[in-house]
Amino acid sequence: MKLINTIIAVVVALLIILFAVSNRAPAVVEVWPFPYQLALPLYAVILLTALVGFIAGVVGAWLAGSERRRETRRLRRQVRDLEQSLARHQMTDTDK
Questions:
Q1: Rounded to the nearest 10 degrees, what angle do helices 2-22 and 42-64 cross at?
Q2: What is the pLDDT of residues 29-69, one digit of tens each?
Q3: Which is nearest to 41 in space by CA: 17, 66, 12, 21?
Q4: Sign of the CA dihedral running 68, 73, 77, 83
Q5: What's the Cα-to-Cα distance from 20 to each of 25, 27, 31, 50, rounded to whole Å?
Q6: Which of 5, 40, 77, 89 is deepest in the core (most CB within 10 A)?
Q7: Can you tell me whether residue 20 is helix, strand or coil?
């Protein structure tokens, strides 16, 4: 599995390198409320936009899963408490 992951990572890296080499033309970036302009290569603008979108998606997915994580923690505590209770009952049964 590690070999497959390495091969996929190498292929993706090569595709990104080819994309960057093919799109070196300058692009001017302005963000509306700010008076600043940035002249960046087109590949940088596209890759940074994709990175920001990816991070926003990860944060959104993490926030959406918070209720499930909370429920999982609650259930784990409940299982631990039940296991401890069962162990106590088994100890008292063997003492009789």
A1: 140
A2: 998 889 999 999 999 999 999 999 999 999 999 999 999 99
A3: 21
A4: positive
A5: 10, 13, 23, 13
A6: 40
A7: helix
What's the full length of the chain, in residues? Answer: 96
Cα 21 to chain centroid, rounded = 28
CB distance 64 to 82 below 8 Å? no
Taking the C-alpha atoms of residue 77 and residue 41, their distance in angstroms, rounded to an integer, is: 52
Strand partners, 30: 37
d(CA 71, CA 2): 33
Q: Which two tokens stand for residue 81?
A: 């408490």
